[in-house]
Design brief:
The complex is a heterotrimer. By secondary structure, chain A is an all-alpha fold. In chain A, 71% of the residues lie in helices and 2% in strands. Chain C is 70% helix and 3% strand. Classes of the chains: A mainly alpha, B mainly alpha, C mainly alpha.
């Protein structure tokens, strides 16, 4: 059996364990080891990407127990893609944290690595209950990270985030229970088979369970009306944490794609395409809400926090339509938006560090230091975020627009998306011109130098939007292949027949 | 029996939900605990209610479904960790705001907002 | 390869030009002109190919899946525009060299200018609509940055943002339009689109697509009602105004109309939308220009009006009109650019642009004056100058329109009217500035001629005006022909470029325009008084107030919805859950499955009653926190009993031990918290919450009932069968935990560890002082460490350790296991803390709980990785039997190592968490009752 599949889980796990022993080691050593871990992780995910690209499913049965009985990891194109998105993002965030935001308490790197472990389990697991466990791992780590950095401002948004997610976890357990109580299994592939035979009253139970599960994922993905925990939490989090959290909402999106295409996909008979008719309108409203929030934002970080919500809407709308083209477009856009928004959070932090007491608030202030450098980063970042040419966001947006079939849905999606882009154009030009152009005379208190590592990390993430354009063709080929793979659950179900080690085939 | 059990779960859920909609951290914590009791009982009962058939090989001739038990055990542990965390978080909030309201100082948002801005500085 | 070169060289230049900034303005100006020179050199050899309608196509694949390709396409139209962009661009570079002051950021200026030039060339040379759109938006962005070049000026910033909003927004509309056209045609390649004209016009989406495309064109070319951004763009440095906002960028819109003319034009909709927009713009621009006191303002509105003229010509739909339009593009570019430069010179030399101050400059700068006057006459359409020719053609065409009834008179009348205005404002430009008495307190006095080279660009352009005006056929004939050919997609109508077409109606209209214009100017005071009656609206202010309104509304809305109240968010969450589950559950109703109900026995019923009562009790008395805590712990105990009752001993034990620790935890918390909850949620709120809670409870009851009574079969038989042979354990639950689903357990202990770390980190630098007494004001017991407890604690520890060891070892076969054992140990140790205090215990235990946890996780991981060695996957277990003293024959599974990991992690995590809470407060009991001082 292919041990590579465990790498994205074991590498951060071991790295984190090492960190726990190093409570009193010098910070330089801890940093080196931590970043080394993230680098290793990146390497391993790239290997997995290369593997997954042959279009086959790779299965890893823990304890060598035949699925559906044991827990399996399943590597397909989607999983590999999510792993790579995460590990690249993680590397830059981790580098940024070396600029000093990892100080304050010794747990940062441990929590950071555990967070990655949780994310990777979520992307790889083929077991519904194990997905729950993965969520808990990444959530508890995120709670810790969210509170990192001291100060009293994070406590309340953090508390809200925690409580809401605890409720979410309870609902998750209930829905898993409901689904198990009818199908008697937890393995996703097996579930996909079993739900097709469900009938009678059991059908209602499965439906209720499936819908409640959707709410849980929607909470993670920050879909309206469950998105309000996000802005303040992200806006107050430490920069690298906020940046890393750009992928947290995508976990929810991932879970929706995975579960609702595999288990409740077209082939699911009575429960086919469960809940998707709720998701499409909600996604559009979410998009609109995000734009409104962005309009009202009065500092960079909450502005970008709302941009996260805009992205969620932009992502889920085409996913809800569920055609191969729209899925592929959504995935392409996801790659772009995740990195871009994360980069913008880092930029916001750099700006805040160069403007004295004005921080990143959208107000008149004395001329910041390194204005040209930062304004260029900002310009590139918001161009990509608002989906203006020639950066990756534009390609993603065009793909999404093109993927809709003519009809009322097209009318809705196009108008919301384009009007949204128009308003974000106004928002970003306003914010930018106030922060970078509208300066008053006066000197800055607390001069802070721009650290090389932080500038590098921020630039790196922003530059990804150019890299994506450069690699657009291969990326698109991959996302298209991924979409097709997702729309063919039958082949996923085949994993139930995997032979275990020592079995003679 | 089943009806009674269902009622128990219903009660736990209802009281849990009611409590976690309160405005102070302590009742919210109680609510979450209560809710998780309900959830655990529910998850446990997905194996149906069977008496005297504990899944220990040889202890009887038929056994109840062991899987939900294992799941609930995991759930209990995780729930415990989460409860501990949220309790501590409310303590921290108490320390930061001198108040145990879930929204900080009496949920006075506008002020809390400005505080955020002033203190919410990049590290 | 030459065409991409032409487009991308300027971008390349933009990267390198700023490096020459240190070398002074001359150096960078020279550096910046290199790309244009190379581009011209690259273009001229292609001229013969396109001269009579040929097309040069240089195409490279880029993103086929979107339909974007790097295809560049040169034809007459593209060539004409490219030449305008390049040549005027060169002149601008020279001009700007003298316009910019030494202190200014010339690197940025020339860099942006080159970026713009590249984008503009991209628009005209693109052979692919999406590619063109990319460059289109780039021009919007670069123009934004150039208008805001003097970012310290408020008006510059606002003008820039307004321009971006309008043109960028138009770009989005254009994007939509292009995507539609692409969907109709099935390709974004210009050649395919131009060939598919009939198909497009026949398609049901054509009206929408056309509207969107025209939105793009009109916004860019400042057509009414989107014209307002252009005058405010005049905050830019004058070279920018001359280049972007009169000669090139604002022509992008009309270029687009020319470009897509064969594909979109020739329908009713096209005719009405384009020609009427053009007419309105023509008239409004000309009228307003008359009353502007700002030199650049006058020129800006005149530009608007001339753009309207060109649009109107394209709208008319006759072939000759299109030719006239193309012709006027050339003429306007030349005379307007030179006029802007002249205005810039005047501004530069006098320090103001207010025509009420600037008078009689002829005496001070005769040379410049002459140039400006010639250019102005061209603008007015004086014979022997280029403006006259295109205007004559326009007048002629305005008579050709076959409109029904009186409407037929509209075009010629409006044309003449506009002619009158334009003569009037041209006259004003000339007379006010260069004659009309003496200058009135100029900031710079006396003004004099600018540096020699600053005038060269103006001279060249003015020369062009004259050449075209006198020898049209010779000077622009061929270029115009090929451009018109490209625009019309073949068959160019007969048009003769002679100075005079004989005495005819158009000429009469011109004469009327002149007489009327001069008359109007002589009577200007009347008109000014008339105009003064309407108060002028400042679009910039309007735009700002709109944006402010938006922001303000958004802020209020956001604050109203995202109000930072957890209670609201929680309600939203719970209600969403109820909402989505409602329908299926209602369908379910009070359903009892085939298994039916089993009888109730009294002990169980009693338990249930206790549980329900305590639960409700907790909810009702939750404000007396201690009571609530006692009640909820009873609930927890009953839950444990329930597990035991329904054959789940492991769960019972776990629940019990967790219960103990949780209660200890909550007690610790309560020690710091106020011991009662103030009453706050109003009755209405409570009623609502009760309702929600009841609905949720009912839903769960119904589901549970339906579920419990329905038969089902699960995968669990497999576990029962394989637990012993495969997992080597009799206790199936434990085997599932450490073997079948060991990976869950790994995650679970990870959660524990992370939680503990998080708690530790969170409380690190926090201190809390507990209230001095309980609600009723009883003080705390002064007795810190009760003797009884101390006496009991130590023997208990030893006992507890033995018990936990036993429970741990037997776990694989009988209820028990690492987790329960761990908790028991943890509790035992906890008691030591309670009995003997932090320091005392810590000294004697002397383990770092971090390391204990780390150790636990490590054991678990090693137990998993171990199986790699044997080629088996993670967490594959194996077991062997050994005979132990006392315990007897005993079987050790490799899973035991894993379970050991669980055991250690649990101890470490639990103690780390609880001890960090214990550490919260410096002294055992506080003297100061006020906790607020810590916040």
């Amino acid at each position: 059996m292919n041990h590579w599949l465990t790498a994205p889980i074991l590498i951060p796990l071991i790295g984190a364990i090492v960190q726990t022993f190093m409570g009193y080691a010098p910070i330089s050593l801890r940093r080196t080891l931590a970043v080394a871990t993230t680098l290793l992780l990146l390497a391993s995910t790239l290997v997995l990407l290369a593997m997954a690209d042959d279009g086959s499913y790779r299965v890893y049965a823990f304890g060598n127990w035949q699925p559906p009985f044991g827990i399996v990891l399943v590597l397909d194109r989607l999983a590999a893609l999510m792993l790579v998105i995460t590990s690249i993002l993680a590397l830059f965030c981790h580098l940024f944290s070396l600029g000093g935001s990892d100080e304050g308490n010794r747990q940062f790197h441990t929590l950071f690595l555990f967070q990655l472990m949780g994310l990777n389990i979520a992307f790889l697991t083929g077991d519904l209950f194990n997905l729950f466990v993965a969520f808990e791992v990444l959530l508890i780590a995120s709670y810790g990270l969210l509170m990192h950095g001291g100060g009293t401002v994070r406590t309340v948004p953090g508390l809200h985030y925690v409580v809401l997610n605890l409720i979410g976890s309870a609902v998750f357990l209930i829905s898993v229970g409901m689904i198990y109580s009818v199908t008697g299994t937890l393995n996703m592939a097996d579930l996909a088979v079993k739900v097709r035979e469900v009938s009678g009253e059991n059908l209602q139970i499965v439906k209720a369970g499936g819908m409640m599960l959707l709410v849980v994922f929607a909470l993670k993905a920050a879909l309206l009306p469950l998105c309000f925990w996000l802005p303040k939490a992200y806006a107050t989090a430490t920069a690298p944490v906020a940046a890393l959290f750009a992928v947290m909402t995508k976990v929810g999106v991932y879970a929706i794609i995975r579960v609702y295409l595999l288990i409740f996909g077209d082939a699911a008979g009575p429960v086919a395409n469960l809940g998707m008719d709720w998701v499409f309108p909600l996604a559009l409203i979410t998009l609109a809400m995000g734009v409104i929030g962005a309009l009202g934002a009065d500092n960079f970080r909450s502005l970008f926090a709302w941009q996260v919500i805009i992205s969620v809407g932009t992502l889920l709308a085409p996913i809800a339509l569920g055609s191969s083209a729209s899925l592929s477009a959504a995935l392409f856009y996801m790659i772009s938006t995740t990195w871009t928004v994360a980069g913008l959070f880092l930029v916001a932090d750099l700006v805040a560090s160069q403007r004295g007491t004005a921080l990143d608030r959208i107000v008149t202030a004395p001329k910041m230091r390194h204005r040209t450098f930062l304004s260029v980063l900002y310009l590139l970042g918001v161009l990509a975020a608002a989906g203006l040419p020639p950066l990756s966001g534009f390609l993603g947006k065009v793909l999404i627009l093109n993927s809709v079939e003519p009809g009322p849905q097209m009318a809705w999606l196009w108008s919301v998306l384009l009007v949204g882009s128009f308003l974000s154009l106004i928002v970003y030009s306003r914010a930018g011109s106030i922060v970078f152009w509208r300066t008053v005379d006066g000197h800055l208190e607390k001069p802070e130098s721009l650290k090389r590592v932080t500038s590098l990390a921020a630039t790196g993430l922003i530059a990804m939007s150019i890299v994506i354009v450069a690699l657009a063709s291969p990326i698109n080929r991959y996302t298209e292949a991924t979409a097709d793979q997702l729309l063919n659950p039958e082949s996923y179900i085949q994993i139930l027949d995997t032979t275990m080690v020592g079995e003679d085939t | 029996m089943e009806l009674m059990y269902a009622l128990v779960i219903g009660t736990l859920t209802a009281t849990g939900v009611y409590l976690l909609l309160r405005g102070r951290t302590f009742p919210v914590v109680l609510g979450l605990t209560m809710l998780s009791y309900g959830v655990n009982l529910f998850l446990f009962s997905t194996g149906r209610l069977v008496a005297g058939q504990q899944p220990i090989i040889g202890s009887s001739d038929t056994y109840t479904d062991p899987l939900p038990q294992a799941l609930v055990l995991t759930a209990i542990v995780i729930g415990f960790a989460m409860t501990a965390f949220v309790v501590v978080m409310s303590l921290r909030s108490l320390a930061d705001h001198g108040d145990d309201h879930v929204d900080g100082s009496q949920g006075d948002d506008s002020q809390a907002e400005n505080k955020h801005r002033k203190e919410g500085s990049g590290q | 390869m030459s065409l991409p070169l032409v487009v991308f060289l300027p971008f390349l230049g933009a990267l390198f030009a700023p490096l020459f900034a240190q070398g002074g303005r001359t150096a960078i100006a020279i550096a910046s002109s290199v790309p244009a020179l190379i581009a011209l050199a690259a273009l001229f050899p292609l001229w013969p190919e396109v001269a009579d309608g040929g097309i040069v196509l240089q195409s490279y694949e880029w993103l086929p899946f979107i339909g974007i390709s790097f295809s560049f396409r040169l034809d007459g139209l593209a060539l004409l525009f490219a030449l305008l962009i390049l040549i005027i661009g060169l002149l601008i570079i020279l001009y700007a060299r003298y316009y910019l002051k030494p202190g200014e950021n010339v690197g940025k200026f020339y860099g942006l200018l080159l970026c713009f030039k590249g984008s503009m060339l991209g628009i005209v040379l693109s052979g692919n609509l999406l590619l063109m759109l990319i460059f289109w938006e780039l021009t919007s962005i670069t123009s934004f940055l150039l208008i805001g070049f003097w970012s310290h000026k408020k008006d510059a910033r606002r003008g820039a943002r307004m321009a971006l909003a309008v043109t960028g927004g138009g770009g989005l509309a254009l994007l939509a339009g292009i995507l539609m056209i692409g969907n109709i045609v099935g390709s974004f390649e210009l050649d395919d689109v131009l060939a598919a004209g009939d198909q497009i016009k026949a398609h049901s989406l054509y009206p929408i697509a056309l509207t969107l495309v025209l939105l793009g064109a009109f916004t860019k070319s400042a057509q009414f009602p989107f014209h307002f951004w252009l005058p405010h763009a005049m905050q830019a440095p004058t070279p920018v105004s001359a280049y972007l906002h009169s000669a090139t960028m604002v022509k992008a819109g009309v270029f687009l109309m020319a470009r897509l003319y064969p594909a979109l034009a020739g329908t009713e909709q096209w005719f009405y939308m384009v020609s009427f927009t053009g007419m309105a713009t023509l008239l409004i621009g000309a009228y307003v220009a008359m009353f502007k006191h700002d030199l650049k303002g006058l020129l800006a509105y005149s530009t608007v009006s001339h753009l309207g003229l060109i649009t109107l010509l394209f709208g008319m739909g006759t072939k000759l009109a299109a030719v006239a339009a193309v012709f006027h593009v050339i003429n306007h570019a030349t005379f307007k650019a030179s006029l802007f430069m002249a205005a810039g010179i005047i501004d530069h030399e006098t320090g103001t642009r207010d025509m009420r101050k600037i008078n009689g400059l002829l005496r001070y700068m005769p040379h410049t004056a002459t140039l400006a006057m010639v250019a102005a006459s061209a603008m007015a359409g004086v014979p022997l100058l280029n403006g006259f020719l295109s205007k004559e053609m326009f007048f002629a065409e305005s008579l050709q329109l076959n409109l029904p009834g009186w409407v037929a008179w509209l075009p010629p009348v409006i044309a003449t009217l506009a002619g009158i205005f334009s003569v009037a404002y041209s006259a004003r430009f000339v007379h006010d500035v260069f004659f009309n008495g003496k200058p009135i307190n100029l900031p710079i006095y006396p003004p004099h001629e600018p540096p020699r080279y600053m005038k060269i660009p103006v001279e060249i352009l003015v020369l062009a005006c004259i050449m075209v005006g006198m020898f049209p056929a010779f000077s622009v004939g061929p270029l115009l022909y090929s451009a018109s050919f490209a625009t019309l997609g073949g068959e160019v109508p007969e048009f003769e470029l002679t100075i005079l077409h004989g005495f005819n109606l158009p000429l009469l209209m011109s004469v009327m325009a002149f007489v009327g214009g001069l008359l109007m100017y002589s009577q200007r005071q009347k008109f000014f008084d008339f105009h003064a009656r309407f108060k002028e609206i400042d679009e910039k202010a309007v735009f700002e107030s709109i944006v402010h309104g938006l922001v303000d509304k958004a802020q209020r809305l956001t604050a109203a919805i995202e109000n930072g109240s957890l209670q609201r968010y929680a309600v939203l969450l719970v209600v969403s859950v109820i909402a989505v589950a409602a329908l299926p559950i209602l369908n379910l109703g009070l359903f009892v499955g085939d298994n039916g109900l089993t009888p109730v026995d009294w002990p169980t019923a009693l338990l249930a009653a206790v549980l329900i009562l305590c639960a409700i009790g907790t909810a009702t008395v939750h404000r007396e926190r201690f009571t609530a805590l006692v009640l909820i712990s009873v609930v927890g105990l009953v839950v444990a009993l329930t597990f035991a009752r329904f054959s789940a001993p492991d769960l019972a034990m776990t629940q019990l031990s967790v219960e103990v620790v949780t209660i200890v935890l909550l007690m610790l918390a309560m020690y710091y918290m106020p011991s009662w909850t103030p009453k706050e949620s109003a009755g209405g709120r409570r009623a609502r919450d009760i309702l929600i809670a009841l609905i949720a409870g009912t839903g769960m009851t119904l589901i549970t009932l339906a579920m419990l009574t329905s038969p089902f079969n699960s995968i669990s038989d497999f576990f029962l069968e394989n637990s012993k042979p495969g997992g080597g354990g009799y206790n199936v639950v434990n085997v599932i935990l450490v073997d079948f689903r060991g990976f869950d357990t790994l995650g679970e202990i990870a959660v524990l560890a992370i939680a503990a770390l998080g708690i530790y980190a969170m409380l690190k630098n926090t201190t809390l002082t507990p209230p001095a007494g309980d609600a009723k004001g009883h003080a705390w017991s002064r007795d810190a460490y009760p003797l009884m407890l101390q006496q009991l604690a130590r023997p208990m520890l030893a006992l507890a350790l033995m018990v936990s060891a036993y429970i741990f070892l037997r776990g694989h076969n009988l209820p028990g296991g690492g987790f329960i054992a761990g908790l028991i140990t943890a509790v035992a140790l906890l008691i030591q803390y309670l009995a003997n205090g932090m320091t005392w215990t810590q000294d004697r235990i002397g383990i770092k709980y971090h390391n204990l946890m780390g150790l636990g996780l490590m054991f678990a991981t090693i137990a998993g990785v171990g199986s790699f060695a044997f080629g088996y996957p993670f967490l594959t277990s194996t077991f062997a039997y050994i005979t132990w003293p006392v315990v007897g024959k005993f079987e050790v599974a490799s899973a035991l190592v894993f379970d050991l990991g669980v055991y250690l992690t649990v101890i470490g995590a639990t103690l780390l968490a609880l001890v960090s809470i214990g550490r919260l407060t410096p002294m055992p009991h506080p003297a100061i009752p006020d906790p607020r001082e810590n916040s």
